[in-house]
Amino acid sequence: MKKTNSDHFIQVIIFDMDWTLYPMDGDCFKESSIWKHIIFSYKKLIIEKMNANPFQADEYYNALLKNEKTYWTSMTRVLWEQFNMTREEIIKYTWWTMNLDFIYFCENNIKKLFNIMKKKWILLFLVTSAPYIWSKKVISYLQIEDFFEKIFTAEDFSRDKTLIFNEIIKLTKINPSNILSVWDQYNSDILPAKLLWMRTYHVNKINPIEHLIKEI
Ligand SMILES: [Mg+2]
C-alpha cells in the first residue's frame, strides 16, 4: 500500500536528555562520570555531617545505601531522611555541583536541529529522569530551553514514562502515530512509547541525534 503524507507527518517530538541530545562519557548512567560525581558527593556529605574520615564514610555509605543502590532518587531519599535535610538540599549538593565537562556538546549542532523543528511547527517536549536543576543547567547551556512546550523531570514522575507519554497525548490531542519519541534506552523508554503506538527514534552509534532530521 502506498503511504500517504499523513503517515509521515510528525507533529510532536518527545526528547530524552542525557545520552540522547548529546553523548556523555560511559555508555550509561551507572558507567558515567555523573554517577561517580554523585557517589563522591554522597560520601563528602557523610564526611561533613558525621565528621567522619573517608574510610568511615565508605563504610557508612555501604551500610546505609546497600539496599538502595539501584537508583539515585532512592539514595537521595535515604540521605535526606538520615541527615534531616530537604530533597532540594541534597540535589543541590549532588547534581548542581556537577561540571558540564562530562557532556560532549561540541560535535552536535543541537540548536540548529531545534530551529529546523520549530520552523516545521513541531511541538517539542523534554522528558528526563534527571532532576529539574540539572535539566535546567544543561538546556540553558545548549540554548534550547525556549524550544520546549513543557519539561518533565524526576520531580514529575517515577521511573515509568507511560504516565507522562499519556499526559502529552492528552495535552496535545495529537494521535500517537504522529508523535515521535526519541530515546537512547530501549527497554525503559523506546518500548513504552511503542506500546502506546508512538513512532520512535532510537539514538545510538548508528543513529546519532543529527540523523533525526531525516525523520521529520
Ligand atoms: Mg538517556
Your description of this structure?
The chain is an alpha/beta fold and 216 residues long. The chain folds into 2 domains: 5-24 and 105-215, 3-Layer(aba) Sandwich (Rossmann fold); 30-101. The chain contains 8 helices and 5 strands, in the order E-H-H-H-H-H-E-H-E-H-E-H-E. The chain has helices at 33-50, 54-65, 72-83, 87-96, 110-119, 132-141, 162-172, 186-195, and strands spanning 12-15, 123-127, 148-152, 179-183, 199-202. Strands 3-2-1-4-5 form a 5-stranded parallel sheet, with helices on one face. Helix 8 links the parallel strand 4 (179-183) and strand 5. Helix 1 (33-50) crosses helix 2 and helix 3 (72-83) crosses helix 4. It is elongated. Residues 1-5 have low confidence and may be disordered. Residues 16, 18-20, 184-185 line the site of magnesium ion. The site of magnesium ion (MG) has 6 residues, from loops.
Question: What order do the helices and strands come in, and which of them pair?
Answer:
Layout: E1 12-15, H1 33-50, H2 54-65, H3 72-83, H4 87-96, H5 110-119, E2 123-127, H6 132-141, E3 148-152, H7 162-172, E4 179-183, H8 186-195, E5 199-202
Parallel strand pairs: 1-2, 1-4, 2-3, 4-5
Helix pairs in contact: 1-2, 3-4
This protein binds magnesium ion.
Identify the quaternary structure here.
single chain
- Helix content range of the residues, please? 40-55%
Bound heterogens, unique: magnesium ion
Order of helices and strands: EHHHHHEHEHEHE
Strand content: 5-15%
Structural class: alpha/beta
What is the CATH architecture annotation of the largest domain?
Answer: 3-Layer(aba) Sandwich
